[in-house]
Write the structure tokens for this entry.
Amino acid sequence: MAYPIQRMRRLRANETLRAMVRETNLTVNDLIYPMFILPGRGKKQPIQSMPGVFQFSADKLTDEIREIESLGIPSILLFGLPEHKDEMGSEASDPNGSVQQAVKKIKDLCPQMIVITDVCLCEYTSHGHCGVLKSDKTVDNDRTLDLLAREAISHVQAGCDMVAPSDMMDGRIGYIRNCLDQNGYENIPIMSYAAKFASGFYGPFRDAADCAPQFGDRRSYQMDPGNILEALREVELDIQEGADIVMVKPALAYLDVLKEIKTRFGMPTAAYNVSGEYSLIKAAAAQGWVNEETVMMEVLTAIKRAGADLIITYAAKDAARLL
Ligand code: PBG
């Protein structure tokens, strides 16, 4: 032969070798499982657009929590649905609200599980926006901050380990940090939905959390999909305001944003593999067009490779079974 061939294939010969030189290894400790909590009692309801995912009332959580625990998944992220919605999203900070009840129940069942609560008003407001409205129907940033802080405090009082504001109001991380500190909760971390884009991939979630906006859309507070420099500014501000973990959401269409954030700030960084990303795989797999397990593990590995320390995913239980 006239020239030497570089033998890259030598280390691909069998699975043992491949595993030895694998650069990115997904582990169960990377996973956070999102869950939807219904008001009332005795409920476990499938979510049509998210096969395999259910909404539970707090009293029905036991088996699910035991399963998550037995799979070794360290953490869950809770979303609550209210009994009644109103203009102000009042039930968000109800000490007996669905999430607050679920937090107590889960921490009783499984004290070492890290229970994170989503802090936002959209599930609780009659109009479905993530904040309260001004008379001209735009979202009132500054008046929303106090309601978010009350919601966060009520979650912490119920016993959650971490709060995750997902509303995208300006200044909310600093405001919530300050309120937590003043109430003696200076050791409760904040995971900030720092770079949250206005995305079509949230479609199935809006069924699950019953939080589609009743008019308009979320583009006046969530980010424009074209913007990465702005995402970096959002993350920088949230870090300055006291975020402990920064999140990029969605994950797959924003892996470049995730990579840049991890490289630039070196913070504990989470990625939210959102509802639409999950359902797309489920739907294609149900048609027999892709292999569900292969594609799911490939996607989760890619998100980790791009820089995620933590992946919030509806596929957490399925992935944990394979790890
Ligand atoms: C609420 C919230 C949303 C998601 C998480 N928190 C929906 C939205 O912003 O419209 C989406 C999660 C998913 O799609 O899995 N602010």
